[in-house]
Amino acid sequence: MQTIDTLINARWVIPVEPDGLTLDHHSIAVHGGKIVEVLPTKDVAKKYHATETVDLKTHAVIPGLVNAHTHAAMSLFRGLADDLPLMDWLNNHIWPAEAKWVSPDFVRDGTELAIAEMLKSGTTCFSDMYFFPDVTARACHDAGMRACIGLIMIDFPSAWAQNADEYLHKGLKLHDELRNSELISTAFAPHAPYTVSDAPFEKIRMYADELDIPIHMHVHETAHEVDASVKQHGMRPLARLAKLGLLSPRLIAVHMTQLLPEEIKLLAQDNVSVVHCPESNLKLASGFCPVHALVKAGVNVALGTDGAASNNSLDMLEEMHIAALLAKGASGEATAVPAYTALRMATLNGAKALGIDNRTGSLAAGKAADIAAIDLSVISSQPVYEPVSQIVYATTRNQVSDVWVNGKHLLADYRLTGMDEAALRDKAIEWHDKIKAG
Ligand SMILES: [Zn+2]
User: Fold this and answer.
1) Residue 197 alpha carbon to ligand 1 centre in Å
2) Ligand 1: distance of its center to the CA of 26 in Å?
3) How many whole angstroms from 304 Cα to the centroid of ligand 1?
4) How many helices and strands, by DSSP H and E, does the chain display?
5) 60 CA from centroid of ligand 1 (Å)
6) Each residue's pLDDT tens digit, 263-318
7) What spacing in Å lies between the alpha carbon of 70 and ligand 1's midpoint?
8) How far apart are CA 156 and CA 147, in angstroms?
9) How far is the centre of ligand 1, averaged over its atoms, from the C-alpha of 92 (Å)?
10) β-strand pairing of 2-13 with 23-31
11) How many Cβ atoms are within 10 Å of 377's Cβ, its own excluded?
């Protein structure tokens, strides 16, 4: 008999690895923050004695969702400027608001609000790109949230840094501080090809190779971006990145709504990961990422919500739903992105893009206990023929009952165990009042 910290008994366990598998009446043994074993519930009593047992009799248990692209602190700008195209939205609304309001306090409060929202919707890890990444990292550490913190780089000055050298220096210092963290990893996060010049890109490529970390960037978000690059550089952004030596398994290319067939081949050949953000692309009318063609070509496609100012939620269940539907509509093939593929994109593929699939992204022995439980007993999820199909097509985040990150029970029976929801709400209202008053 082995004594363990936690035993989770579930109606269904969907490990994601191996692909397409749903286990009936299975349990997950967790100890020291890690998954010890996934086994039939009937075999548990003779093997394990658990300090805490959680019975989830009507629930499907999945790997915690990985939000592979967001700007967490922007949750405080949710609904500030809607129904606008990307460049108008950025130039005339978001960038001026950021210039005025972004500070360590803003990032702290916005990130905490985002973490609470993500935990309550089954997300256990997010990949962030924003100013004051040190503050974001601290908020994740304090909340027990897993994250890949983007070391932001952008050609214009901000409250975080004045020029490329300062962005890089501060990023490298933060990477160094976080290098032994179990929960938090880092990636370079140059904003986009149209906001970062060649010289900082060259430095980022060199340091990313040396430190062995990913490069997380918006690429080919709109047709306008591609046209402007052809005018300015004589080539499409992806070609420019290729020339700079940036196409590699390290690159996490976010959006990719404009892709030629030969570019898809190139992404597959260089093992670039793509992060699809369907709701943000739809809302800003940015275009359609050819997900079906990318998956068929063998490209690792993950999912992200983007920031709450362009979505407007950080809800990965909804993102899976939209991604599965949009791939069918955009490709004209109803078989595009079936439910299991959507779930894999939202879990293991995200972890792979971030270079942490050895730690998280599936329910496998030895991986961190990053787990989400979804109650399928509600009327709107009945009857259950196929739990994964139900999760992707007929489930809302209000059905997420329990979440563990690194073995810590951060959402227990719908309640956040380490965060004060009323206080988070009060702070959001305070920021709203300040921002609205100008
Ligand atoms: Zn973004």
Assistant:
1) 18
2) 38
3) 9
4) 16, 16
5) 30
6) 999 999 999 999 999 999 999 999 999 999 999 999 999 999 999 999 999 999 99
7) 6
8) 25
9) 17
10) antiparallel
11) 12
CB-CB neighbours of 205 under 10 Å: 20
CB within 8 Å of 68: residues ≥ 6 apart: 126, 127, 252, 254, 275, 302, 303, 304, 349, 350, 353, 354
Q: How far is the CA of 310 from the centre of ligand 1 (A)?
A: 8
Distance 27 CA to ligand 1 centre (A): 37
Q: Which amino acid is at 168?
A: L
H or E stretch covering 254: strand 251-255
How far, in Å, from the CA of 383 to the mean position of ligand 1?
37
pLDDT of residue 252: 98
Cα of 66 from ligand 1 centre, angstroms: 15
The answer to whether the beta carbons of residues 188 and 170 sit under 8 Å apart is: no
Q: What pLDDT digit, counting tens, does each position of 296-308 carry?
A: 999 999 999 999 9
Mean pLDDT by 10 residues, the chain (438 residues): 97 97 98 98 97 98 98 97 92 93 98 98 98 98 98 96 98 97 97 98 98 98 97 98 98 98 98 98 96 98 97 97 98 97 98 98 98 98 98 98 98 98 98 93
Q: pLDDT at position 438, please?
A: 81
Task: Give the bridge partners for 35, in sequence order.
Answer: 30
Tokens 């501060």, residue located: 170
